[in-house]
Design goal:
By secondary structure, the chain is an all-alpha fold. Helices cover 72% and strands 0% of the residues.
């Protein structure tokens, strides 16, 4: 069930009409029931697995709040990560082992099982997101960061809150649980929430999906396309992912606001970052902070020697890459980002500086360098395999002459729109100006609803899957 589908629109409309007359506890029960429907729409069986995981983790977390037990923490982590590893990484590990020992059957186990037994281990939707959220709560309970005992009802809402649990933001208990008994609707929240929903639809349906139609074939067969296409496609791709994922976040935050809740922002104008470190403070913010708090810092963080710091960065980012997908190309993407981050850390420690610190032109060059580096490393993210990624870079280096992409000039216009939305996140003054004018927001919502609806009916594809749903 997609946010941009008629089915979800109907579900949310019914939910919204039922929500307001209810007392707080009734609102909470309705949120839980709606979340059941939302997730169960994909798979009732996986919903049962998810609920079992919620029940086990609530029980273990409740005990860990009362007494520290490394054994119980290890048990909880083994269950949570074991569930993630089985569903998401089983084929990756077995097929990689098969390639290593030269066993052709194991090296292509997924396809062999489909052919021989008509059987495949399916990936539960949102497993990466809800696993990280559950693990964070479990570890926080062990560390003593959660002071008050949480009821099972509130814990379930925290994990299952339907606007965000499919693709984030990855919430922490302190972000959301204190709000559950006290939703605070206001005119500003309703207006800003409605505008966020409209903005998210524009980003997702009218920008990201349209870019995808133009460039998606390039990743499957890079050897068939001209080098000029291969040079420009990564720029279009990172704009596509940005609009797709930040569009989802906008819709999730907008829906939460309209029912009186706040959930964290996930993007802070990443394409104007001056370094890769700065970019990862602005791109998928809740994942970055999760990786920092639950992998990087437990490995020793920055409290160890320089060599260990660089190693910790590489491990953290490589695991972050694998979190995005169980492929060697995703691992390479994460590792390559880690190498860049470690290099930046090294140059800062060494006092190396190629550009002056405060000059405006130097800051602009840093922004361009960071953006293009992020875009071209994203080839590993976009390519369906490591081999295809290598074919892609070979096509650029050899400046191959092949087919153009039709309508690429349309993608250029969409890239510009994506960068405008990025700028509105980076510079907050326009939002502050708009927030001070409620009548203008009313007008934008009224006009925007009809204009966006009309444009979606002409150019939109309501079946367009969100890219991060696969994670």
């Amino acid at each position: 069930m997609l946010f941009n589908s008629a089915v979800f629109l109907l579900l949310f409309l019914v939910f919204y009409l039922l929500y307001w007359p209810l007392p707080v506890r009734g609102k909470q029960v309705l949120i839980i029931l709606t979340s059941f429907i939302f997730y169960g729409w994909y798979s009732p069986l996986f919903l049962l697995v998810f609920l079992a995981l919620i029940g086990v983790n609530f029980y273990l977390s409740s005990i860990l709040q009362k007494r520290k037990s490394r054994g119980l923490l290890a048990l909880g982590l083994a269950i949570d990560l074991g569930n993630l590893i089985f569903f998401k990484y089983f084929y990756f590990f077995v097929e990689s082992f098969g390639m290593m020992i030269g066993d052709a059957y194991l090296a292509d186990l997924r396809q062999n099982w489909i052919r021989d037994y008509d059987f495949e281990i399916e990936l539960p939707i949102a497993i990466s997101f809800y696993t990280f959220q559950i693990v964070a709560y479990l570890v926080d309970a062990y560390r003593g960061d959660i002071e008050e005992q949480t009821s099972f009802r509130k814990y379930t809402i925290f994990i299952l809150f339907f606007p965000q649990f499919i693709a984030g933001p990855i919430m922490r208990s302190a972000d959301f649980i204190p709000q559950i008994d006290n939703p605070q609707p206001s005119r500003d929240r309703m207006l800003n929430g409605s505008l966020l929903i409209l903005q998210g639809i524009i980003k997702k349906v009218l920008i990201a999906d349209r870019i995808g139609v133009i460039i998606n074939p390039v990743w499957q067969n890079p050897e068939q396309y001209d080098a000029t296409v291969l040079i420009l496609a990564p720029i279009a791709f990172v704009c596509q992912v940005y609009c797709d994922f930040s569009g989802y976040t906008d819709m999730a935050r907008g829906m939460a606001k309209t029912i009186g809740y706040e959930i964290p922002e996930n993007f802070l104008g990443p394409f104007f970052a001056v370094s890769m470190r700065d970019l990862w403070r602005r791109w998928h913010v809740t994942l970055t902070t999760w990786l920092r708090d639950y992998i990087f810092i437990p490995l020793g963080g920055s409290r160890v020697g320089p060599a260990r710091i660089y190693l910790n960065i590489l491990i953290t980012m490589a695991l972050g890459g694998l979190w995005h997908g169980a492929t060697w190309s995703m691992f390479t993407w994460g590792l390559s980002l880690g190498i860049v981050l470690a290099w930046e850390q090294f140059t800062v420690r060494a006092g190396w500086r190629l550009l002056p610190e405060d000059a405006g032109w130097a800051q602009s060059l840093r922004r361009l360098r960071t953006f293009f580096l992020f875009a071209y490393l994203a080839v590993f993210f976009a390519a369906p395999s490591f081999g295809k990624a290598m074919d892609y870079f070979a096509g650029i280096l050899e400046f191959q002459r092949a087919n153009p992409v039709s309508s690429f000039e349309g993608a250029v216009g969409l890239i510009i729109l994506a960068l405008i939305f990025n700028a509105l996140q980076y510079w907050t003054q326009p939002r502050a100006w708009l927030n001070a004018r409620p009548r203008l927001r009313y007008a934008l919502i009224f006009v925007g609803t009809f204009v966006v609806g009309y444009l979606v009916s002409i150019f939109g594809d309501v079946s367009g899957q969100f890219i991060y749903f696969q994670f």
